[in-house]
Amino acid sequence: xxxxxxxxxxxxxxxxxxxxxxxxxxxxxxxxxxxxxxxxxxxxxxxxxxxxxxxxxxxxxxxxxxxxxxxxxxxxxxxxxxxxxxxxxxxxxxxxxxxxxxxxxxxxxxxxxxxxxxxxxxxxxxxxxxxxxxxxxxxxxxxxxxxxxxxxxxxxxxxxxxxxxxxxxxxxxxxxxxxxxxxxxxxxxxxxxxxxxxxxxxxxxxxxxxxxxxxxxxxxxxxxxxxx
Length: 228
Ligand code: AMP
Prior knowledge:
By secondary structure, the chain is α/β, with parallel strands linked by helices. Helix content is about 45%, strand content about 15%. The strands form two sheets. Strands 2-3-1-4-8 form a five-stranded parallel beta sheet. A hairpin with a 5-residue loop joins strand 5 and strand 6. The C terminus is likely disordered. Adenosine monophosphate binds next to helix 2 and helix 3.
């Protein structure tokens, strides 16, 4: 299954993408996570992306498409993926279609997370990210046992610089202008599935599963893990 999870920053798509990835045995590809790793590693690409990320702006399309191509060439996406945070612009969406077509594949489903806008800022300020392994928590919807410590690796939990209030406002504007219009693009292809992203992690997860159960391409031989 080739799936895109689309939605504003803070809508919960990263958490849900992780769950679906584990449940279906296909990789979650988060372009934000890849970029943060590259920034931490001080790579050329990381250095080029850093300023854009700190300002809450989009990293240019040609950099992002190159990054995605490299990721798709690592060889673990032949049964599909869940994309989190990509595409964010129309050129990225068209580029993604071309990359997939070259591999003889196409997107099956785009899950669009609709969330009460007033909740987004609140959710983002409650987000904590592990400084060591990158795991993401939310003090409201997905809390760690200890606010400051990662349950998975014991690393320190921090607030991402771009989750601070001033940057968040800019990121939400960028989403409305550049990314929200992608819903029209995917709707016209008949693969857009809006879901209500409000509520706890498990409730939202069930709504996504309802969509995927209907859409899951069993005829292509894929199964949810544990399904006979
Ligand atoms: P995220 O973790 O998805 O919120 O991404 C964090 C930041 O990385 C964004 O605010 C952008 O600066 C950058 N970024 C991640 N994915 C993309 C993308 N597909 N296109 C452009 N910039 C991106």
